[in-house]
């Protein structure tokens, strides 16, 4: 489930539907491809401990901001050319 949370947050996955497709097609992080229903993933997120989700999110947040600024800086550089 932590792999799902990281995958959902890090590459800007749009939501559980896309996360389900990714898991079936290519897997993510240390999880090999698996076919599961969107309802199963949604249900698991409902039972995932909020404190663990918060910890993962807070640990990732600085990297997410740095990544976003790098992308925006690159876009603005290209835009000026």
The average pLDDT score comes to 77
Order of helices and strands: HHHH
Report the helical percentage. over 70%
Globally, the shape reads globular
> What's the number of domains?
1
Percentage of residues in DSSP E strands = under 5%
Our count of helices gives 4
Classification by helices and strands:
mainly alpha
Largest sheet, if any?
none
Question: Keyphrases for this structure?
Answer:
single chain; 81 residues; mainly alpha; globular
Describe, in plain words, how this protein is organized in 3D.
The structure is a single chain. The chain is an all-alpha fold and 81 residues long. It has one domain. Helices cover 73% and strands 0% of the residues. It contains four helices and no strands. The model has no long low-confidence stretch (mean pLDDT 77).
Entry summary:
The chain has 81 residues and is an all-alpha fold.
Please describe the topology of this protein.
Blueprint: H1 2-9, H2 16-25, H3 38-47, H4 50-80
Helix pairs in contact: 1-4
């Amino acid at each position: 489930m932590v792999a799902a949370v990281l995958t959902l947050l890090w590459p800007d996955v749009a939501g559980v539907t896309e996360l389900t497709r990714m898991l079936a097609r290519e897997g993510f992080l240390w999880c090999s491809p698996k076919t599961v229903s969107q309802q199963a993933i949604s249900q698991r997120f409902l039972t995932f401990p909020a404190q663990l989700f918060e910890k993962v999110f807070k640990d990732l947040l600085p990297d997410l901001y740095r990544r976003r600024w790098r992308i925006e800086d690159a876009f603005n550089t290209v835009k000026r050319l």
